[in-house]
Task: structure prediction
Amino acid sequence: MLSHTTVGVSDIQRALEFYGPIMEALGLTLKFSEPQWAGWKHSDADRPLFIITRPFDGQAATPGNGQMIALLARSRSLVDHCYAVALEHGGRDEGKPRLRPAYHPNYYGAYFRDPDGNKLCICCHDPEATE
Result:
């Protein structure tokens, strides 16, 4: 359904240091990294891409109100790990990892903001994926 998702950042190097370990934990590989932008993908597909970039209009990177990107994890323990990695690399807590049965009985998710304030979620929908 998606070709790519783009997140505006103010400092590419800082964003690489934040997103790199999370993407690695999720099994995504860096497809490109240039001074203006960088992007990750699954190793067995060219799309979708998750892209970080300095805004092309030259204005400041700002988070969108009500916008969030949710990244899929293969297990609940991976949700926990990615959340911890995010906080270790400058992320801010927006909701600790836990079951959220209001969404559905097996929804396990964690919420955080990157150093620029963009809201992200790492989630797992599989009841058996607890590794």
Summary: The chain has a mean pLDDT of 94.
